[in-house]
Specification:
Elements (H helix, E strand, L loop, with lengths): L2 H53 L5 H9 L9 E5 L5 E4 L8 H10 L1 E6 L2 E10 L2 E9 L2 H48 L18 H48 L6 H33 L7 E4 H15 L4 E6 L1 H6 L4 E4 L1 H17 L5 E8 L3 E8 L6 H4 L21 H11 L3 E7 L3 E9 L3
Parallel strand pairs: 7-9
Antiparallel strand pairs: 1-2, 1-5, 3-4, 4-5, 6-8, 9-10, 10-12, 11-12
Helix pairs in contact: 1-4, 5-6, 6-11, 7-9, 9-11
Amino acid sequence: MKIRARLSFTFVGIVAAILLLFSFVVYATAEYFRQRDFYLRLSDKAKTTARLLLDEDEITMRLLRIFEQNNLTALPEEQINIYDQQNRMIYATQDSTIIKPEVLLLIRKKKEAFFRKGPQEIVGFVHRHNNQEYILVASAHDEYGLEEMRHLSTIMVVGLVCSLALMGIVGWAYAGRSLRPISEVIRQVDRITASNLNQRVSAGNDEDELAQLAHTFNRMLDRVQEAFEMQRNFVANASHELRTPLTIITGQIEVTLLKRRTVEEHEAKWKAVLEVIQRMNKLTNNLLDLTLVSLGSTPLKFSEVAIDEVIYQASQMLTNRQPDYSVVFAFDGKLESMQPSLTIEGNKSLLFSAFFNLMENGCKFSEKKRVDVTLGATERWITVEFKDEGVGISEADLKSIYEPFFRADNVKRIHGHGVGLPLTYRIIQLHYGYIHVSSEIDRGTTFTVQLPKKL
């Protein structure tokens, strides 16, 4: 069932329940007052009859009956009985009417009683006259009152049906009008495809919930478009970066096979091919690591990690691979005096990759092939500073250095793929840390990493 129909039925159901409750209260109230008024009329008729019979000696029972039969104000099927203290009937409008003794006892006990017998409504009460108790029992058929109640019930039923029909029409129209902005949002969303992710949704008056929904959806579209563009650029750049070494490898093998060569020539060619394959392998591993940490597809296992040990191991591997690179360690002066802990909760393998990339970049982009690493700590944070005297990064390029495959113009002549820094940035984020960079062209770059001791 659609929302419009569900809202309409719910609206009609609520209105129907309210109208039924209201009609029941009105009918019950009207019936109560009808009975009360009718019982009062019966009581007054019985008291009047008793006074005429008991106070006026000239009025006999036969004369009183004739008077009652010709009374224009008599009620339909009116019957009045009067009983003395011994429950003997001393007067009756009709001789055939007899009240059972147990009913008389009940009236004497309660002093007043109301009950119904078929269409007859009966009232009985104790009437004192000259220090004697009489029981007056009056009954009649409220023909006119019941007819009015039937008219009232007919009016209520017809009014209820007409009101529900009207409420159904109004509810359907109101629900359609209320849901029209949602239908418009659906149409706008349906027109958005991968080729026009720049389109946005508008709805409401910028204050209601539908407008908030549209704004939330637009923010989601912003994130989707950004991710889509990043994926597109990632695929294009990754394809280019992978195609280049494959082309080099193919060219080297084809040139080698053009003619017979000496063993030394073959060794030189295969060394060149091996170097390209190693670069390609490194690129592939970095891409895989970047994908894993970006998507979060693999849950990270954190354990206690000594930052100084990880940095030392990464520097050892770097200098073993590149003997011309040098890493110089230093400790912050405060660290030596305070001697705080250098252990955090983290993933050792990922932190190793992050520190290795920062030290490799510092050496690779510096003519001295050197990076200075300074380690500091406070009670809450561990700080690692990587400083080089390399080519530097321009202010315009600083905002893009963490984008995959981005390379500044002044370092394109130096071999690289633009994957290390984005991977490092994501690893530091996964450890709830921060990375800051400051740089000057031709004077060097400084990366500062802050990692919390407790996550």
